[in-house]
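Form 7-S
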Amino acid sequence: MPVLSGRLSGLTTRGRCLLAAGAATAVCAVVLDERDLLRVGVFVALLPLLALLLAARTRRIVRVERELDPARVPVDVEVSVVLQLQGGALLGALSLVDAAPDAAGPQADAPPRFTVHRLSSRGTATLTYPLRPVLRGVHRVGPAIGTAGDPLGLAEFERELAGADRLLVLPRVVPLRGLPPAVGTGEGTPGAALAHQGQGASDVLIRPYRQGDEMRRVHWRSSARHDELMVRLEERPWRGGMTLLLDRRDAAHRGRGADSSLEFAVSLAASIGVHLLERGEPCTLVTEDGTALVPAGISGGREPMLDALAALRPSARTDLAGPDLTTGTDVLAVLGALGPGQVEALLARSSGIGHAVLLDTTTWDPASASARGRGSAAGHAAALRRAGWQVAVATAGASPARVWDDLVLGAAPDAVQGGRS
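Output:
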């Protein structure tokens, strides 16, 4: 009996009812010695079994291949998914469902669910749907599950027609400009800023005049426009590279999904890394424990770095202790929430010039922010500044470009607010 049940497992409720009715009719016909009724019963009982064979045939002959175009995209860039079906003639409808996670961004008006009634004369069909990923990461698109049935809906079989494919979604990168003015005061190989001298207008950044600034740095055109003295920031060579530290500790971040403080930190780190590499400046990207995200010896510039950031996962670490960060380079840290003693732990790892973007993570989750938590970011920023670091504090809603400008311009110790002009 279990064997028979397994063989008939492809029957729908309608098919099982029809099979039971045919069998009952045949039994009654034998008891009543009604040959015509027996023929009807046998026909009714055989109909779902024939449908079972047809559905099984469709399941065996159909093959599906998936193509992602492209398979590596930044966040919020559309991906076209193409499903190519191949096989013989369909004797019933084929329902096809392609699994796609919410983070990969299937659109509401084009979900990955299809019903195919027939293939072309060549035995093929092409199905296409769009994805617009909303969150960086390594996403699995698939598997594609096909359900084959017969025209009467008496039997159906479910089968995996295509496995899963890898969709790599890169963090959002925004264009940045300029370099922090305090960087590169020591000796070292000149960076790209010097290499571009004499090649037209430079990327000029300005800020209000401060006591002690040299008059030769006054930008007179901007001063006339703003009706106050404005000073031009001159780019200087880096001392020998930059160690870019990304704090990925899960306990140091707030918020969920694409709007979390961790995703903001990853986007900012990606933007800074790309900005430095495009200017020809050496840059090493490490996590809070000192692990290099891109192993030494891998070349290719921005692509390996973005791939590594796309696959970055939060860390269970709770502290910032680790190996020395200043092997002849400056340090630029993108930090989440800091706890007691963590500023000192970070300073102990860096003996050179330090720059930091400190995220006020309480603004990403105001409901859980305590009165003490709301002031902790400003207090830790002040401690870093007393140690000689240049610091910008960012809140939820700020853009990475605005945070970077605040760090480059050496702005006053105020948080970079979202929507600030």
